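U., I forgot to send this yesterday:
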Amino acid sequence: MRKRTKAREAALQVLYQLEITQESWEKAIPLYWESHPADAAIQEFSNQLVGGTIKHLREIDEWIIKSADNWDIIRMATVDRNILRLAAYELLYQTEVPPKVAINEAVELAKKYGDTESSKFVNGILDKIHKEHQR
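Result:
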């Protein structure tokens, strides 16, 4: 598995944990790395993704709500919601990550961690966010 893929997977796990425990991300990240050691590049990119997602959470959620027809963000599966947040952060705020890469990585996370329909759901919403953001 590539380093950035590992970093995205770790970021998803931290975001999921944060939502479940309501812990601060400043505390959760060091605890995560204590129990899931990884090299510095993976930790750095993952921490950047988590911090950026948390920093822009309100705007990211607005994009998701706007793009998720007939879906209340609170009723989405927790894992799907956090995959969407992570990928939306990359689409909206990370200029060095090609949009296609961010979407494909999110779809792969959805296949691994979501249910049977998660990957289609994630792909559809992220595609809408990407197209609307390009305008």
